């Protein structure tokens, strides 16, 4: 990537298409297994990051990507087989090498918040396997997006647990 200025990222909170709790995700208690929540956050969140230009295309072009180093999951509501879902992703914080994002899993039928996951990720060079800074124009866009998303209200009852600062 060159040092030229990049156009701003879309500022809306990213939302997945429709999802549905699969029967295979149900545990012996008759609800969605806790590990499946995290897998869904990971799979769908990764796909949504493409719209921030940090997904598979970015990695293919730069040989850099995001390594998750910490997560904070909060389970709010039980989910059962067949429940329709949506997943939303926003950027809460960004610095030269890190981002903190928030994902919200909601029932698509009534908007009930089922779970949240904050995620701290570092920017890494996949060749050296070392943390590296974002290119300055990328870092600037991410900080600008975090300023917009960070000013929005958090889901009711959500308490921030992760930060870019050590």
From TrEMBL:
One Pfam family recorded for the sequence: 4HBT_2
Alphabetical list of Gene3D superfamilies matching this protein: Hotdog Thioesterase
Recorded GO MF terms: fatty acyl-CoA hydrolase activity
Protein name: Thioesterase
Species whose genome carries this gene: Azospirillum palustre
């Amino acid at each position: 990537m060159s040092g030229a200025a990049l156009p701003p990222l879309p500022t809306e909170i990213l939302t997945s298409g429709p999802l549905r709790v699969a029967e295979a995700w149900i545990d012996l208690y008759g609800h969605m297994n806790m590990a499946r929540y995290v897998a869904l956050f990971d799979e769908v969140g990764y796909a949504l990051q493409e719209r921030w230009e940090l997904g598979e295309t970015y990695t293919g072009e730069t040989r850099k990507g995001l390594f998750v180093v910490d997560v904070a999951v909060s389970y709010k509501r039980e989910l059962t087989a067949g429940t329709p879902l949506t997943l939303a992703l926003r950027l809460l914080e960004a610095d030269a090498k890190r981002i903190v994002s928030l994902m919200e899993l909601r029932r698509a039928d009534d908007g009930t918040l089922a779970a949240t996951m904050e995620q701290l990720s570092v920017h890494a060079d996949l060749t050296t396997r070392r943390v590296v800074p974002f290119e300055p124009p990328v870092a600037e866009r991410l900080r600008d997006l975090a300023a917009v998303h960070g000013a929005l209200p958090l889901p009711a009852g959500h308490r921030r647990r992760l930060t870019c600062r050590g």
